[in-house]
Fold each of these.
Amino acid sequence: MAYILQQLLQKSAQRYPEKLAVWARGRSIRYRELEQRSNQLAHLLRQNGVRKGDRVGIYFPKCVESVIAMLGVVKAGGVYVPLDPQAPAERIGYIIGNCGICGLITHAEKRRALDPVTLESLAFSLLTDEAPQTSKGSGVIPWTVLQEFPSDIAPSVTLTETDLAYILYTSGSTGRPKGVMLTHQNALTFVEWCAEKFHITSDDRLSNHAPLHFDLSVFDVYNALEAGASLYMVTEDLALFPARLASFLETQEITVWYSVPSALTLLLLHADLQADKLKKLRTILFAGEVFAMKYLQQLAERLPQTDLWNLYGPTETNVCTYYEVERERLPGMDKLPIGIACENTEVFAVNGDDEIITQAGGTGELYVRGPAVTCGYWADPEKTGRMVVPNRFQHNFEEKMYRTGDLVQLGADGNYYFLGRRDSMVKSRGYRIELGEIESALLSHPSVKEAVAIAVADDIVGSRIRAVVAFQDGIRLTAEELQHYCGTRIPKYMIPEAIEFRAELPKTSTGKVDRVQLAQESLQVALK
Amino acid sequence: MSTTNSIPAAQPALREQLREFILENLAHPKGVTSFTDDEPLMETGVIDSLGIFRLVSFLEDELGVRISDEEINPDTLKNLNTIEALVIRKREK
């Protein structure tokens, strides 16, 4: 049984060396080559100072080299940090500093956009695109150098399953993203659960729709490796065009698809999904946001031969509950459950009296315990202490549990149902968005006196963001100028789509901004 | 910001109409304040998975052209030049 992720690749490379491992943008790599290149990369990283526990950023648009990079870093004993290729340079620079990233595997163009101070802090930048001559600077290494390193065996590193494998940064409520630390054990707990539940075999062909900094991709990459299956990466040239994406599903004979619900809704609305063209598509998994029932029902009708599963869980635990869609029940359902705990994970809901809910109808905050749970946030003991707490319900030994901040209800059917959040975190296209992070970005502009970000419910993407802003006296900016400013600090999907200006924001009796009133008012305003 | 054209505007009024729609509805909400005629709009994140359909709806509803699924692709919607060319082509039919 594998205890570290690279063993999944090692085993499959032994069994299926000639099998296609990863496909992206018309290029592909076989298992043998994936094993060899990642071994070489691991040696290169060690030579450039990477030691056990060191963080290496992966910062380029998805391609075959992405998977080589992930495996190469863990084989070197390092911890990879997938960085969103579409995030503003300032945010990437922040993460590099916050995480103590020692080097990057990146593209020349992406590297150039980073702040010189950030670049100075890096021991190396390994460029996977062919433009070594144009990039100057210490530590710039072209990908071609890989072939100089041993390929048949990885460097000798002592790792255990409790060592970190990767860190995923998510939106932070106090204005800066937070790095969720995940060990090999965290990842394998999830991968092994999926392998068992979804019966992934070497005959499967998995798509990878999610970006690599999003934990859905852990299933795509590592369950493919685990089974000796083939991975087909979905890049923007496909993802943005539902008709092409549907063609891709058909041509590549994808057997298992995992994505956020909005990607499925767009396929449903804008591509002609035909069950007889998608005979191979045996399983669809979705997670990350609430799937509007009407669209799920339509999808179920369109693809009667495909199993549909709702998976739920924050980045801090990966998937912790699941529900297999019961087709007979669908027409009568107005709400889809998040289901029951995954095997090898335990969840429970704690009510306002600090009791664990056992009766149907009870509601409370969902907590998670077990080997899936993160050990915390990188360099943030304060947030770690708040969210990864001692399990006060465990009397026999000390252990931690994670408080999800999600309010749930236990149904009569034994399933949990999601009710809402305790705080102001919202989902849009499956992306986690802390309204506080958007507000911090707005407030950081010297002309902004007050700012509130509001989420407006949307059938397709979950939430759309708008903002209400009050300026410092005498200063005015246009909405476009403020949106542009936001774009230098937060990812595009977090930028408010509409900004309303007021002289003053309404206050509650205690003098705080009255968010509830603003949210109610925004319900009246139609977002185009 | 000045616009660098690689193709002279075949129909300046149409081009401006397209530019204005994209600016107001797609670029500004992504924090992008301007773009050149040949700048790739999807690569820069101006057009995302929702934006594609808002653009197509605009072309169909406001400009009266019918776009087929195959014509919604990375080549036709690459930049302002190609979008203008698409509309002109469809109008000529």
Note: Residues 51 and 73 of chain B are 13 Å apart (CA to CA).
Amino acid sequence: MPGIATLRAMSSALKNRVISSTELTQEHLATIAEDKTNSFITVAKDSALEQAKRAEQMREQGSSHPLTGVPLAHKDIFCTKGITTTCGSRMLENFVAPYDAHVVALLNQAGMVTLGKTNMDEFAMGSSNESSHFGPVSNPWNMDKVPGGSSGGSAAAVAAGLVACATGTDTGGSIRQPAALCGITGLKPTYGRISRYGMIAFASSLDQAGPMTCDAEDAALMLSAMAGFDSKDSTSAQRQDAWLADFAEHGIPDLERPLKIGLPQEYYADLSNGSIIEAVQKTLAQQGHELVDVSLPHTQAAIPVYYVIAGAEASTNLSRYDGVRFGHRCENPQSLEDLYKRSRSEGFGDEVKRRILTGTYTLSVGYFDAYYIKAQQIRRLISEDFNNVFANVDVLLTPTSPTPAFSQGQLSDDPIAMYQQDLYTVPTSLAGLPALSMPCGFVDGLPVGAQLIAPAFREDVLLGLAAQYQKHSDWHLQRPNGFRVSKEWAA
Amino acid sequence: MSEAKPTIDLPHLANLARLNFDSDSSESARADLEKIIAMIDAMQAVNTEGVAPLSHPLEGAQRLRQDLVTETEQRDNFQSTAPATSEGYYLVPRVVD
């Protein structure tokens, strides 16, 4: 088994020729073959070894990109040309996309090696990875517990040391909550920062891709490679943020000044493990930051609003699965209607059907204004809450999720209880803001995450503060069974 | 709307969503949807008078571009994933007798 190491450790080992990309890839593939967490839906051995060879050629020809030859895994929501993309669904069980997602293309260009595709809640709808057609994923810290979701396979794979970095997507918390439950660092960038092209759509006004890594430094390196304007995504942001390349090249710089950190009281009201987040506050205060109480008064409305908007957009987006052009098709359809209905009913699982029905209900005649328009109005109030507090503070600190990892099966029969898992992550998604979850302690041997939230396009503040916290703590270096993440590659 | 228990006409919704439910799954789907709608109805208490709806989280506007051809014809490539095609067309059951 290879040592568990950061992306940067692997990058410098490749640069210094301590190991070749092929050897590194082979070591990773051997570790994945022993995996017991069910983190991967597809392992792409042959194409990974081809990419590793190509990365070696790139380095020989002078490529200086730090990610050249470093292995990663993609959440199975990103289209990968030639490798099956299932989105965790029977609907796409045999779907091989005819093109690469923009993110995949960028990371391929950088010379990264795709080891395979990670498990996820079906169509990214879930907070436990239990809705996957390909079986649940175990949390490496306790195999009876869930890894969170929907990017549960990506989070578990990084936590188990199968890979140093995986891509994820976050619609209402799907990067941050599993990152918290598995003890890794997860970044949901600002809406529009990373292209959605080739990322299978769930809720288009919320979906955003991001990196899941050991620490903030690795997240910055990945963000720099994943971000950028893409004309194929109509909501892609046109930004010229020089810090993205600077962070990747020189590492995350020290913060220029102490920050004013807001503590939204609505996020602390029902907290059962308050002492852990209080310890984070103390560590940050010791670094000279000022902590102040703030209020985001519409927080409680965020879950209902999210389930209206995400459901509406999901029911619309998922209408494309009709059994005609791609995806599952039923046997012997008797009519076009029968083809649609049976293909969809066989192809989708229960949670996906629940969301489609919710969206169909709220968008139907007579209900549209009362639900969809009302939800969009409250969405503005939630967004304004954030604008108001960011007039006075630089960043917010909150818990990432209400509880540590829960048991498999504990919430799977109670959708409403499951939806409450997103309580602290959904408001940021509705407002399109960047947020990062970082490990900050343990409860009964299970990791807990702290969430940092910044104004739009200020991922630099999140990464700067997280990097500083991670210099003064080692939660992010701890791994199951006493293993630790190494910052240097041990040959 | 927030006081009354929502009335769920599941067969109607299932038809709109092009989904089939047998009698058992229909009952549990209806019960789940009732609970979800009741949870959602909590938002009706928020005063939104005079608030404009927000559809793009950062108030982005639709980007326009020159009206130029940017895509190439890739019918074979795209149809390689189709369940059934014939001579470049997608096959479906007979629609007109």
Note: Chain A has 16 helices and eleven strands.
Amino acid sequence: MNPLPLNLLPPGADYAAVMPLLWAFAAAVLVLIAEMFWPYRSRRGVGWLTIAALLAIAVLGRAPSEAVYFGPIALDGFSGWCNGLLCLVAALSVLMSLDTLEVNGVTRGEYYPLLLFAVAGGMVMAAATDLVVMFLGLETMSMAVYVLAGMGKARRRSNEASLKYFLLGAFASAFMLYGIALLYSQAGSTDLAAMAGLAGEGGTSAVTRLGAALLLVGFGFKIAAVPFHLWAPDVYEGAPSPVTAFMATVVKAAAFAALLRSVLLAMPWVAGELQTPLWVAAAATMTVGNLAALRQRSLKRMLAFSSVAHTGYLAMAVVAGTSEAAAALLFYLAAYAAMNLGAFAVMMLLADRGRPAENISDLAGLGRARPLAALAMTVCMLSLTGIPPLGGFVAKVSLFGAVLDAGFYTLVVVAVLNSVLSAAYYLGVIRAMYFDDADSVAAGGASAASRVLPSRPALTVSILLAALAVVLIGLSPSPLLGSSLRALASVAGF
Amino acid sequence: MSELVFYLLAAITVLCALGVITRPNPVHSALFLVMTLFMLAVFYIILEAHLVAALQIIVYAGAVMVLFLFVITLLNLKGDPDEPAHPLLRIVAYAVAATLAAGVAIVLMGDAGVVPGGAGAGAVLAEGFGGTRALARILFTDYLVAFELTSVLLLVAVVGAVVLAQREPVAEAPLTETGEDA
Amino acid sequence: MVGPAHFMALSAALFFIGAAGVATRRNIVVIFMSVELMLNAANLAFVAVARGLGTMEGQVIVFFVMTLAAAEAAVGLAVILAMFRNRQTVDAGEISLLKW
């Protein structure tokens, strides 16, 4: 037998393709080491280092004009776009956590390196052109997030959130892995390039369909789609708020990016073969999410169900399966991340005797106590509802339009009805901020001013940045929309 | 290999797996799981995956299961038998699982060619198939990226396990805001 | 004649036994063991397909899954330990948030 070749690189490997990932992992390790030696009293310096690293990776992770490959890792327009989205959103979530980790019970500095590892795992998911590598990226991210969810170690809710997320996450991974095994048995490879060929003249084989279905079940858990959403409200509510904000935006975006590249683009037959179950799942996800959100008194839990509802809207793009719908999905992810982070940041502003205050009623009087934050919250809530001219409106119009073009009229009607329904609870938040003041004080409740954390510049800045992003995306959507279209066009073979 | 031997081994494996999910005592479950993992190592040898079989026993049946037993004894779960879920739920879950398993098994064993190799002997193997050298060759070339990723995965797991399992030094962990020089 | 298809069928049986275990058990450690059973079922499928195709890819994937399982076990048991410190229970039914 021949000795191993000296050059171990796969043929045609270009280091440029993995550089963004190497930077991300290097940053995570650097922050991990820095955190060890950083003096405890100025721990937030580690946070600033993390933000700087994320911004640097967002710049370094941009795609070259020509796509480059390193074995199963691709750096094309799509992964470049996702790198930017994941890093910028994560940077914003770190910015808002600088002031709020302590009050949420997170005392350990490993928060920052674990968050960076999760982002790096998400970048792998968006760049992988092989199901096994995508799966390993997903596991790297999930493993970090299991721990992040449990970082409020002294709090039972956080322990339970971590445990529940872990058990259901591992369960979902097992489904996904078995799906990959079945697809491997049919395609003879786990390479995404081999997956498109699985549909022969007579459609796909039963084993292929089962494999794809199990893969989708795994994704369904990760993005919290009905009927696999049951963990989401409890985990989102129990995890420390900065981690919840991260999970609802970065983790969801990474899962959708992987779903887009590994299923929507690589297995175009999925949309056809599994159309009915996907259709039902998307419609059920938005309806269940909105109906449950209506009943919530906890703002955090309401945002969790609202996140489920938005998963339903996003899943419509998977049903439609067209490239326009996929581009609209990318755009929606960006707009959704901005408005959701804004909402979480305003929620984090509230605290009651050193504990986070997370009920909608706690917002009472915020309009007077913190007019700027209340205005930002109003912008985010209106955007989540889909009121023009904000980012959420443009995102919904482009997504619903693309799904309409694909011929799914009933599904779009369901989505529009759901958006109307969602106005009820989003506007309820605005009412609480501006009109519930007198009632709550009369009833002996603490006034809003006492519930707002003392001056928190980083949190305030992040609230304003999120609201600004929502408005900017709404007023001039074309650059972002155009870049998401170009990102999709760059995926090889699509 | 004769069918009789296969079905005998398969029956033992399935019984052990059923033991994992039905025994009320978690220690018994863990030991049944070890048995199942051993049986899988036997199947790996039959399937010419020699290195994987060795790793299965060293890593899985050895290291991972020791971790499980360690936690069971640490938490003293022995005298804490697990009350089963509602009997109706159990029956429904078992029936659904059995139906799905039978359905998938029938599809997989149905027509020739559903699974590569089907019910035949499988492909003609190169010399050294399943050995360390053959596995290393592909591991460090085609799967180099995945291999490096697993190193990151392990690092994350180590950091995460330390963060969660380490006892918090009380003096160093101010829970109120006053502890921080805001 | 016994071929890869038989091993795949066995792996399907193990996979659904594991899934049934997750659905019916309340002890968290046992639920986790059931998940391990499901991962092992996938491993058997990978090895069987590798034998059928005569390529080593499936076996390399098993190598990664084993690493993953070890990492998952370390984190999972740390999560269970952290919760046990605060609650003294590993019964999923006892945990108010764990409703499924």
Note: Chain B touches chain C through 92 residues (CB under 8 Å).
Amino acid sequence: MSITDYERVPTVSTERNEALAEKLKRLWETEPGIAGFLSTVDHKEIGIRYIITAFAFLIAGGLEAAVMRWQLAWPGRHALTPEQYDQLFSTHGMTMIFLYAGPVLSGFSNYLWPLLLGARDMALPRLNALSYWIYLCAGIFLYAAFAFGFGPNDGWFNYVPLAARAYNAGPNIDFYALGMILLGISTTVGSINFVVTFLRMRAPGMSINRVPILIWGTLTASAANIFAIPAVSLAFFLLWMDRNVGTHFFDVPTGGSALLWQHLFWMFGHPWVYAIVLPAMGMVSDGLPVFTRRPLVGYTVVALATVATMVLGFGVWVHHMFATGLPSVSLSFFSAASIIIAVPSAVGVFAWIATIWTGKPVFTTAFMFFASFIVLFVIGGVSGFMTGSVPVDWQLTDTYFVVAHLHYVLIGINVFPVVGATYFWFPKFTGRMMDERLGRWNFWTMFIGFNIGFFPMHISGLLGMPRRVYTYADGMGWDWLNLITTIGSYVFAVGVLLFLINVWKSYRNGVVAGDNPWDAPTLEWATTSPPPPYNFVVIPTVASRHPLWEDRLQQHEGESSHVDAGPVLDHGREAIGTSSLDATPDIILRMPRDSYTPVILAVAATAFFAGLAFHAWWLAMLGALAVGIDIIVWLWPERVLGETREPAING
Amino acid sequence: MADRLPIETALPVGAIDTRATGWWAMIFVIFTEAALFAYLLFSYYYIAVQPHVPNTFPEGGLPDLKLAVPNTIILLLSSGAVAWAQLNIEKNDKRHLVWGLGIAAVLGMIFLAVQYFEWAAKPFALASSSYSSLYFVVTGFHMAHVVVGVIMLWALFVWSAMGYFNRIRYAHIHIGGLYWHFVDAVWIAVFFTFYITPYLGLRT
Amino acid sequence: MRFSKRISFLFCIATILHAASAQASAPLNYLTGSGDKADSVVPLTWGVTIISIAVILIISLLVAGAIWRRPGITAQPAGSKIAVDEETNGLSWIWIGVGISSLVLLFTVVWTMAVLAKVTSPSAKPALTIEVTGHQWWWQVRYLSDDPSQIFTTANEIHIPVGKPVLFKLVGADVIHSFWIPQLGGKTDTIPGQTNETWLEAHTPGIYRGQCTEYCGLQHAKMGLLLIAQTPQNFAAWRAHQLQSPARPLDGGQWAGLANFTNHCGSCHTVRGTDAGGSLGPDLSHLMQRHTLAAGVMANSPADLDRWIADPQGIKPGNLMQRPELSDRERASIVSYLKTLN
């Protein structure tokens, strides 16, 4: 067998072939035990870990919120000291926004992307493992600080000069800054991986007008991250320098600028808001049609609207800074942009409604989460639209109205789709169905609890309750509203608990699902549940957006998709590379074996940041050295990856 | 199964030219790095135009070009050496590939040495003012990239000397070259910002 | 069922909001207001709120209609194949929906720009310029004038004459705060290194509450302020009184109080005409004229004053006023002195 030719014509298989499946399993399988755990590069394994880790942080952030709501249930309570409250609300924000909302979507995308695209793995499997390990390390780093009482305490957007050494002498902000830079590395390498996977790993024939909307969502988010993350990493690095080596970036008396922080932070922050909702909107766009028995209405405009949202999203960061005394020309521009950005969102809303309206709904729990999401999306959207109007925003900003808005965005547009997506894809992940009966309870508890808990926040905001207050006086008209909010949020927490119980119960003894329990149209349902390590025995060939519905959709005349017949790549771990627009095969890619380099690199990088945090320069040096060596080992040209010269003839 | 399956011709195997996955990854690494430098330079210009910033911006008056201009030329030559190395391997000239990489790495190290003297000659320190912080951190960021690039060039040098690459298998050279050209291009932007704009009247 | 309930609930909101705010039971609400600024901004606030509620209602109805328009399938047997519809029609939903939305959005942009243009600067020349400095966690208030003898400083309470726009120069002393009198106008940050400007005008005399709204540290929650709008005559009288140094103590106890005050408090607080000339804390020259203590935390009564001096860290933990080392007698003398600062 020759594995070392420069080129070859891939063998084609046209029937189910057990021997081939067995061979591919041997090639792709991860070693069992701790060795395999640390070295695996399987996107499905990494995706599941991402999801579980993100949910662990969701629970942590939820408990923090529960304690805060206890404090705020009545006026004038002192269950928490101001310092405790400040660390809780800051850590809650950091956790939900950075450690839950982004990573959970990375988890789903990691698991689903290669399956949706008909690929054997992500383009850069080791980089994929690295992005998870760094995420885990950064999460532990930030939470270890919190456990010792050094959690962030100036809010998640951490304005200077309050976050400068002069006003915050403890190590809290140093840990936050370094942890965020570390996390930024994870997000960046993950994003690069998604973009390259999109451009190179789609199944033959899957031209860019045939990819599922989830792909568009994650792609757009990832492309944005590539440009946006450096702003926040830089801001935190400059702050760390100001705090630790005496530079003057944000120090006003010596010529620095306090507003520079806000610009850098929100140049990142606003695109990030879209990055943590667009993939979730993509999940709904792909899931809803399955349960309405028809293709999504307006695929092309929805895909374009996804991209347009992000492009506009880079031009609205100043709407977080309307009260900072900017010139009115600048206010007018950013105000108009912030209102107009609602147009592409409207495209999505009407596409989803039309999909339900013209379809035949199947009332599953997943459908209920997806359908209710539309209403929550609109509530979160219109409150955002209100804050886009500058004179109104001068009143709304920094009140509970904004708290309500951002929770409708993050819970309504992230948590609801994610829970719905779990009901939808759980059979694929585990091979078992989730319990529908418990699912109904789960949905109604979450939906009712959420609205009781968070809708009144709009009203407390309109009645002037400022955000980030550890307590409030009575007689302000907020007493009842806060009590209702606390009760509602606890009901919501029960709903989340029911979800977790359902996951556990169904994982243990749910009904066996089969390959395609929902009769869904996309490629992930063409393989077994759960999928084998190599995803597909043969590389699928795609001729439409709905490969598994082609027999029933008349418009697909001419060529049809193939999922059981196609190229066999079995000379080692191999995948097919295709051209970026029309997905014409142009290379056979050698995929890396399992490797320890990612986990070692993550630990070394964490050691570097820990060294900086504790001013243990030897540890930082050691960490940097280990990072350097690890990268050289990682990139060492390998013949098996087709990176070095090969003998002309091989046995 | 009457339909055509799309692959009937031979496909290259492994990492080949711009179809190598690593080449695409490097493109996006460069995008994110370019964004980082864009934000760094934004910080400089933003602070430079603040009305409350003292008139000693740039600190120490107009920057001295004595070392900076020749150093810029050295870095550009280094980029040229890498380009030459890339041309050589495409012609299967492995000896000149090694030479090209070695020359580029040495020129990169000379650039670092000159930068060291440039830093030492500055009449201000990192913590003197907002200008000094910006100057050292932005040029420091660039120097860190040069250090990474020089290490990378030496790695490529060693791998080339070990005979890893040939006319077809040279993706590493291509990818590394891309990074090195980027590091040099960024220097032009940094050089323009810190050494040229004060002469053009920004805040003087 | 669920949605009709939801809709009636939403319909109620506007009424509830209006009732709640009109009764002045929510002193920081901005759904009502007074003054030139509020006259343009309050209608816009209501306008976008009503548009938003209408959009929520319409979309909820459409979603509910889409779901229950025809009997759906309640359960799908795993693995079964259900018919799939063609990808036809439906697109008109997007064009019509987005078209209408765009018109509403455009209308809002135009309205926003009109209001913005109107509130950017006052219609008349400001009658008065007041410099407000945000400190952790109190407000310093300086009445500016071209005539140095007309300048004076007070804290946490701002008096203005009604019917005249007043210019505020906002300065950040330490961290960023945000100056906000919701009944009269929106927020403007006080930022170190820059002077922001805003203006306010009140139509009717009254006490308007304010609050810091940019998170500024431990006691951000307790950084209130009051704006007292007065008739021009009353304002002139108040101002004339403020310009005078407070009366000197009358009896020996009060003199002892002044001595103790100067000793223990004078390095942070100023009382004009005495040796107490500190500037870290609020100017106390006419303390008894104020309604509240410690930036709106408590009423200004002798008992509360005593409580505050005895335990500032218990009432407002983390604030910069340390618990002074005072005997009960010294504290009582200080209170009796402060009571004279009319």
Note: The first helix of chain C runs from residue 2 to 22.
